[in-house]
Amino acid sequence: MVKKRACVFISGKGTNLNTLIKRSRDNSFPIKVELIISNKKNAKGLMYAKKFAIPFLIINTSKKNYDLKALNEITKRNISVICLAGYMKILPKNFIRSFKKPIINIHPSLLPKFKGINTYKRIIENKEKMTGCTVHLVNENLDSGKIILKKSFKIEPYDNEKTLKIKTQKVEYKSYPEALIKLLGKY
Ligand code: GRF
């Protein structure tokens, strides 16, 4: 079986990216990361592009047609799945429409609860009992595409934004690979 060629979009640390790269060394994992796109030239996650010799592209989202540049690179490299992993920009509708294959995102809440940014803060303020993460398909509305997988855990009375983030990300590292297997199959 041929693995799907994946492009991962990042803006920050790239710890989910690192997990996906590591998992894709496994022959039975359905994707191989062939391109990394960052909207921040100093994103820490770009170190994984260098470490694992994966091509990368920095995009400037304040420039007109920046998405066409990204799409060109994606087409050139035969990418058939896009994974957003901590990409902090909204993809233009045209980009989503033009890329006719799956675009997947991971969000640090149990969607449809707490769409958007400042998730941990709002979860704590709202005194939620449970939280977790959601892996979902991307459509033209923010954090609203079809849900592939959710994983939850209990929030303890002593949890704060910092501990929630640590716990949620731990769950994310299991969830993203599992969701990709669920969506794309295992070889
Ligand atoms: C993740 O927790 C994800 O849920 C959110 O952004 C964070 C990215 O972290 N969308 P990292 O860059 O993968 O370390």
What's a quick, concise take on this entry?
The protein has 187 residues and is of the alpha/beta class. The protein has six helices and seven strands, in the order E-H-E-H-E-H-E-H-E-H-E-E-H.
Description:
The chain is an alpha/beta fold and 187 residues long. The protein folds into 2 domains: 1-101, Rossmann fold, CATH 3.40.50; 106-187, 3-Layer(aba) Sandwich (Rossmann fold). Helix content is 34%, strand content 23%. The chain contains 6 helices and 7 strands; from the N terminus they run βαβαβαβαβαββα. The protein has helices at 15-23, 46-51, 66-76, 93-98, 119-125, 161-184, and strands at 4-10, 31-38, 56-58, 81-84, 103-107, 130-137, 147-154. It has a 7-stranded mixed sheet with strand order 3-2-1-4-5-6-7, sandwiched between helices. Helix 4 (93-98) links the parallel strand 4 and strand 5. The longest helix is centred in the C-terminal third of the chain and has 24 residues, at 161-184. The protein starts with a strand and ends with a helix. The model has no long low-confidence stretch (mean pLDDT 97). The protein binds 5-O-phosphono-beta-D-ribofuranosylamine (GRF). 5-O-phosphono-beta-D-ribofuranosylamine (GRF) is lined by residues 10, 12-17, 45, 85-86, 106-108, 133, 169, 172.
